[in-house]
Amino acid sequence: MLDFITRIFNRESTASKNIAKERLRLVLVHDRASVSPQLLQTLKEDLIRVISNYMVIDEEALEVNLENSENQVALIANIPIKSMKRNVNAV
Amino acid sequence: MGEVIVVTSGKGGVGKTTTTANLGTGLAQLGYKVALVDADIGLRNLDVVLGLENRIVYDITDVTGGHCRLRQALIKDKRYEGLFLLPAAQTKDKTAVSPDQMKALCEDLSQEFDYVIIDCPAGIEQGFRNAIAGAHRAIVVTTPEVSAVRDADRIIGLLEAAELRDPKLIINRVRHKMVAAGDMMSIDDIIDILAVDLLGVVPEDEMVIITTNRGEAVIQDDRSRSGMAFRNIVRRITGEQVPLLPLEEGGLFSKLRRLMGFK
User: Fold this and answer.
1) Helices then strands, each counted (H, E), chain A
2) Residues A16, A40: one domain?
3) Which among B150, B181, B259 is the nearest to A28, CB-wise?
4) Can you give the C-alpha Rg of chain A in angstroms?
5) Residues paired with residue B169 on neighbouring β-strands, in sequence order
6) Nearest neighbour of A28 by CB, restricted to B153, B183, B184
7) A47 and A18 co-located in one domain
8) How far is residue A80 CA from its own chain's centroid?
9) Residue B32: band (very low, low, confident or very high) from pLDDT cuts 50, 70, 90
10) Is the model's pLDDT at A4 over the cut of 70?
11) pLDDT by residue (tens digit) across A61-81?
């Protein structure tokens, strides 16, 4: 009986097709966006250029990645700020 | 003017050639005039699947190269009035035909035939570009596996980029028992991911191997489940509305039993 109950409750999460579907979903996000390392690199450079107008950032430590959380894929950027530019408001 | 349909998949081994042979045979059974074109130059296969391998004299490169007339290269299937094969070359490579030549060839064939079905090679290189060059619409074949669905997605993107919009999907080699047990992606899972229209679902069936051994198409077998699935797909291609085959063998009761641990 215990076996029966665990089967019912575990079915959805452990069924191998769900693993397949989840892996597919993730890999297709990369495929469809054709996110090559090169594209991420250009994106990074663009981000640095724009953000540098407003603040001084640590370019070496900047990280940009596609990450998979719960039910969606997100573009996560971690941009350490060294200091703010004083004359931002004047720009 | 006839319709030119390319059967493609990206990944190899998912059943493109078998599908092409069955759709062609099925359409000919309904009385249409059908030309099957093997675009897999260098890896000719459609001829053996159809059992026509001993009758090849000229091939597709002889036609595009002007060494023979189109009519001379077309092999007539003696079993079906109206079914013809244009075989691929076996000794040349994919660069032997250009997309423009392929376009012209499809144009010529569609003057004379109701349906021209092109068996596309695996991959996304020139063989693929040639095969889709003259097509009016596309059928994408996949199986319920991560690699095959991924490649299908890529192919759908490339087809759309080549202005071949709204491709139709055939999901091949589905094992309903594994789907019911949650160990194979279901039709809904795959459609959900690929977001294209479904043309049909073909169950895994040993009869495909047996009929192919003999050089026949499984659609000729009245009792096989895969043959029935292909017959439905053929009718859908001609514009008929045909409901999907019932997917679960045994239905709810056997599903319940399996769930409760009785085999």
Assistant:
1) 3, 4
2) no
3) B150
4) 21
5) B140, B198
6) B153
7) no
8) 17
9) very high
10) no
11) 888 887 766 666 778 888 898
Write down the residue that tokens 């040349």 correspond to: B92
A4 is in which domain, residue-wise? 1-32
Residues B90, A22: Cα–Cα separation, whole Å: 41
SS3 content of chain B, % helix, strand, coil (to 5): 45, 15, 40
Q: Please answer whether residues B3 and B33 qualify as being in contact, where contact means their C-beta atoms are separated by less than 8 angstroms.
A: no
If asked whether residues A1 and A44 sit together in one domain, one would say no
CA B94 vs CA A23, B12, B85, B257: distances in Å: 33, 16, 19, 53
At B113 the three-state DSSP class reads coil
Interchain pair A16, B183: CB under 8 A: yes
Same domain, yes or no: A21 and A50 = no
A81-84 and A55-57: which strand pairing? antiparallel
Per-residue pLDDT reduced to its tens digit, B104-130: 999 999 999 999 999 999 999 999 999
Q: What is the pLDDT of residue B246?
A: 72
- Give the number of A-B residue pairs with CB atoms closer than 8 Å: 46
In a mutational test of the A interface, the residue from B155, B187, B260, B263 whose CB has the highest number of chain A CBs within 10 Å is: B260
Judge if A57 and A91 occupy the same domain. yes
The vertex-A7 CA angle with A5 and A8, nearest 5°, equals 65
The domains found in chain B, sorted by start residue, are 3-259 (3.40.50.300)
Q: Is the pLDDT of residue B73 over 70?
A: yes
- Asked if residue B195 lies in contact with residue B169, where contact means CB atoms within 8 angstroms, the answer is no
